[in-house]
Amino acid sequence: MSSIKPLVFSGVQPTGNLHLGNYLGALRKFVALQESHECIYCVVDLHSITAQLVHEDLAEQTRSITAAFLASGIDPAKHIVFNQSRVPQHAELAWIFNCVARIGWMNRMTQFKDKAGKDRENASLGLLAYPSLMAADILVYRATHVPVGEDQKQHLELTRDIAAKFNHDFASRIETLGVGEPIQMGEETVNGFFPLTEPLIEGPATRVMSLRDGTKKMSKSDPSDLSRINLTDDGDAIAKKIRKAKTDPEPLPSEMDGLKARPEAANLVGIYAALADLTSEQVIAEFGGQQFSVFKPALADLAVEKLAPVSAEMRRISEDRAYVDQVLRDGGERAGALAEATMKQVREIVGFLAG
Ligand code: AQP
After folding, report:
1. C-alpha 177 – ligand 1 centre gap (Å)
2. In this predicted model, what pLDDT tens digit does every residue of 282-339 receive, in sequence order?
3. What is the CATH number of domain 225-317?
4. Which fold has domain 7-203+321-350?
5. Where in the chain is the domain with CATH 1.10.240.10?
6. Are strands 198-200 and 80-83 parallel, antiparallel or unpaired?
7. Is the four-CA dihedral 118, 94, 187, 143 of positive or negative sign?
8. Catalytic annotation on 217?
9. Of ligand 1's atoms, which has the minimum distance to the CA of residue 22?
10. Which of 15, 57, 104, 126 is the most buried (most CB within 10 A)?
């Protein structure tokens, strides 16, 4: 019987307030997948120290992301919610993957290039190795599916490369120990230990853009708060940010093609579609030909209707610190048991002496 079963894993860094991009690109998908899959959702605190080492409020940020998970509708009793640093097997597997992956692979990552900036020599080694830890987060559970935003696609391709190279480099030990599974590699089926994880990147809001610049991703670290809608914003703040969102003077087009050279308009249409569970085509069919003076208030009403209950629930849950900590402790124990089962086999495959 195969021990690789369909399993969803994903994580969010505790590096600031969650925004609409995180919500539509990740959290809402996390919630939907609970119906069809076993899921593990992680607050990836080890990742948060790669770009900036000292965070005065790391513990509070970790609780706040957990509260956002729970407020969005993740059920911590049926699924697993925990913070990464509680399960040291993530870091242990990441070290092995550091020795599997090549420096050239890491140097090509656009997130590393963006975050390291011009002075790459001065970036932390952790920032360079970030995708290796991300591969370990996923593969320590031998997870098969990972819901993420478009920006994480390249890291997931690297996760597949690391899994494939591990399976290849240790092929004979995997065979001898009898711990392999049939893994589909393109047309071929090979005997391997780690699955080739599938990214789940679908829908109209896989890359929500800044409200101030439709060519830049909506991001926690953008200095302008007007560039993003935070999950903690109240109704007035949400409405104000949408009213002030950058647009052009033209009305919305009647055909999708008309959005091609209009990134800000395309972004607002995508956000409306995702919040209303429609396609962008359906939004264009409804609002095509209308001015932004009509579309923006409709979008603001919809955003407030969908986000206000989440932000109220987040505030309520955040006040119950003991409950949030208990969820993370309990999730950490359950995740730790699963991760240790994988690592026992990995240690044997690599050949470390134990016992
Ligand atoms: N703009 C976005 N549109 C769609 N999805 C997004 N995600 C992030 N931004 C967008 C997805 O949210 C999940 C969690 O991301 P994260 O917080 O762990 O890391 P991040 O991508 O670094 O988030 P930010 O907000 O962009 O932070 P900074 O400013 O620190 O870089 C992931 O699934 C991500 O794809």
Report:
1. 39
2. 999 999 999 999 999 999 999 999 999 999 999 999 999 999 999 999 999 999 999 9
3. 1.10.240.10
4. Rossmann fold (3.40.50)
5. 225-317
6. unpaired
7. negative
8. yes
9. 12
10. 15
